[in-house]
Write a structure and sequence with these properties.
- By secondary structure, this protein is an alpha+beta fold.
- The chain has one domain.
- Helices cover 34% and strands 20% of the residues.
- The strands form 5 sheets. It has a 7-stranded antiparallel β-sheet with strand order 1-19-18-15-14-9-8. The chain has a 7-stranded antiparallel β-sheet with strand order 7-4-3-11-10-2-20, with helices on one face.
- The two termini are 25 Å apart.
- The relative contact order is 0.21.
- About 1% of the residues have low confidence.
Length: 456
C-alpha cells in the first residue's frame, strides 16, 4: 500500500494535474508544459474527460469548482448548474407529479458550457488550443476502459429505451468490449462548436439538435432555457473545525452539507451517522468526474463536472452530436407542488457535487471526488486523514489519505467497508487533490480506477 500511495501523487517544479482519466491527466500536463497555467490545464483535462469518460461528464452536464488565484488569501466557489426549464413545473403537474429519474422530464438545463467558459476566462491560452486535444481524441477514438465497459453495461437498457435503433455508446449489434477503440465524431463536432461559441454553445446547431431530441420524447426544454445559465462565481464559505478551517463550494452544491457536519469537530472522529445526518436520500451513485491542477505561480483549482446519476444521465443522446443529456432536474428536484425544491422555472436544483479546500501547513490543499451521495462521506474521510497529518511532506499525506480504506453508505442503512464488506480499493471514489504553497507543486489521484496525477 505504501508503494501505491507514493504512485498516487506527483510533485514538480512547474505544475501538476490530476484527473479521473490517465489520458486527461496527460493532456492537462501538456498544457502546463506548453506554458499554460492551472486553469489551462484543468480545462484541457476536463474537456478530454468529456470524451474519455462520456457517461460521467460532458457539455450537457454541470460544472462546480473551487479555486485559488495567485496571491489570493481564500478560495472562490464557482457553480454553473442549470435551473429548471420554463415548462417543467407545468409538465410535471400535468403528468401527476411523477419522479422522473431518467427520460425527457429528467433532462437538466446544461450548465457546463457557461462553467467551462468561466474557467477559460482565467486561463492564458486560447480556448481552441485547450479543446484541440479533446477534439482530436474524439475523432481518433478512445480506448474503451473497464470503467466505460461497466457503466455501459449498467445503462444498456436505459440507452436502448430511448435509442431503440442503437447509438454510439450502445450499438445495436453488440456492446463495446474493454479495449475497443470507440470513435465519437459527433462529440468532436460539438467540442469544436464549444470552442467557437463558448457559453452560447446551445444557441446554434447543437442546441437545435438537442431541442429536437428532447421534443421527440415529450420533454419541455426550450431554446430560452438552453441559454439561461449564469455561473455564480463568489467567495467560498468556510467553517471552523477542531483542526482548522474548511472551505467549500456554495449552495446549491452539497458544500454546506459537508461544512455543517465538520463544524467545530475533529474530522477524523466522524462516522457514518454524521454523514447520514447531513445527507438527504435524494440522490445516489455516480455519473461525475473530477480534475484538478496547480501551477508554479500559485494558481490552483479543482473541478467537479457531472451528468448526474448514475451514468449516461437522462438516457437521451442527441442525434448527430453523441451528446448525452444530464438528468440533473430529475435527480435534484422534488416533484411535488409548492415544495421548496420543486422545479419552479429557473430554480437551481440541489446537487451532491461539491469541492473543498483546507490550509495545510503554510500551503493549501484543494480536492473533490465523484460519487453522488457518497461524495460527502468520502470527502469527510479524506479530510479526516489530511487534517491530522504532518504538514512537512504533503505528498505523503495525500497519498496515504487517497489509499486509506473507504467506507460507504449502503441503501439498507448499514455501512460497507473496503477489506471487510467489499474488496480492497473497490469503492468507486475518484478523488483528485492539488496543493500549492509548498517547495513543489503537488497533485494526487485516487488509484482505485483510472485516475492519474502528473507533474512537470
Amino acid at each position: 500500500m505504501e508503494i501505491l500511495a507514493r504512485r498516487a501523487t506527483a510533485v514538480g517544479s512547474g505544475g501538476a494535474v490530476a484527473a479521473g482519466s490517465r489520458t486527461a491527466a496527460a493532456i492537462g500536463a501538456r498544457a502546463l508544459a506548453d506554458g499554460g497555467n492551472a486553469f489551462d490545464a484543468v480545462l484541457s483535462a476536463a474537456l478530454a474527460e468529456t470524451v474519455a469518460l462520456p457517461s460521467k461528464c460532458g457539455l450537457a452536464g454541470d460544472v462546480v469548482a473551487l479555486y485559488l488565484t495567485s496571491g489570493s488569501s481564500a478560495p472562490r466557489s464557482l457553480v454553473s448548474v442549470g435551473g429548471a426549464a420554463r415548462g417543467l413545473y407545468d409538465a410535471a403537474a400535468s403528468a401527476g407529479w411523477p419522479t422522473p429519474l431518467t427520460g425527457p422530464l429528467s433532462v437538466g438545463v446544461p450548465g457546463a458550457p457557461a462553467g467551462y467558459a468561466r474557467v477559460a476566462e482565467l486561463a492564458s491560452m486560447p480556448l481552441a488550443r485547450l479543446a484541440a486535444p479533446a477534439i482530436e481524441l474524439a475523432r481518433r477514438g478512445i480506448w474503451w476502459s473497464s470503467m466505460n465497459t461497466l457503466l455501459a453495461q449498467e445503462s444498456r437498457a436505459l440507452l436502448r429505451e430511448y435509442q431503440p435503433n442503437g447509438c454510439v455508446y450502445a450499438p445495436l449489434q453488440a456492446p463495446h468490449a474493454e479495449g475497443d477503440i470507440v470513435r465519437l465524431p459527433g462529440l468532436a463536432d460539438a467540442l469544436e462548436e464549444f470552442a467557437l461559441c463558448r457559453e452560447a454553445l446551445f444557441g446554434g446547431p447543437v442546441g437545435t439538435a438537442t431541442l429536437k431530441t428532447v421534443e421527440r420524447h415529450g420533454g419541455p426544454l426550450s431554446a430560452v432555457d438552453l441559454l439561461s445559465v449564469q455561473p455564480v462565481d463568489e467567495p467560498a464559505h468556510s467553517v471552523e473545525t477542531h483542526c482548522g478551517p474548511v472551505w467549500a463550494t456554495n449552495a446549491p452544491t452539497f458544500g454546506p452539507s459537508l461544512t455543517s457536519v465538520l463544524a467545530g469537530l475533529d474530522p477524523s472522529t466522524l462516522g457514518s451517522h454524521d454523514a447520514r445526518r447531513a445527507l438527504s436520500a435524494r440522490t445516489n451513485d455516480e455519473g461525475t468526474s473530477t480534475v484538478a491542477a496547480v501551477d508554479a505561480a500559485g494558481n490552483a483549482v479543482v473541478m467537479v463536472h457531472s451528468l448526474s446519476f448514475p451514468q449516461y444521465g437522462s438516457g437521451l443522446v442527441v442525434d448527430g452530436f453523441d451528446l448525452i443529456l444530464s438528468n440533473r432536474a430529475g435527480r435534484g428536484f422534488t416533484f411535488a407542488p409548492e415544495h421548496p425544491d420543486s422545479p419552479v422555472p429557473g430554480r437551481r436544483p440541489p446537487t451532491t457535487l461539491h469541492a473543498w479546500g483546507i490550509r495545510f501547513g503554510e500551503g493549501w490543499l484543494l480536492g473533490g471526488t465523484p460519487g453522488g451521495r457518497q461524495q460527502l462521506p468520502w470527502n469527510m474521510q479524506v479530510l479526516g486523514h489530511l487534517m491530522g497529518a504532518p504538514a512537512h511532506r504533503p505528498e505523503h499525506a495525500i497519498g496515504a489519505a487517497l489509499c486509506a480504506p473507504r467506507w460507504e453508505l449502503a441503501a439498507d442503512g448499514t455501512d460497507r467497508l473496503e477489506g471487510r464488506d467489499m474488496p480492497q480499493l473497490s469503492a468507486r471514489s475518484g478523488h483528485t487533490v492539488v496543493g500549492r504553497g509548498f517547495p513543489g507543486c503537488v497533485a494526487g489521484a485516487d488509484p482505485r480506477w483510472d485516475g492519474a496525477a502528473v507533474a512537470i
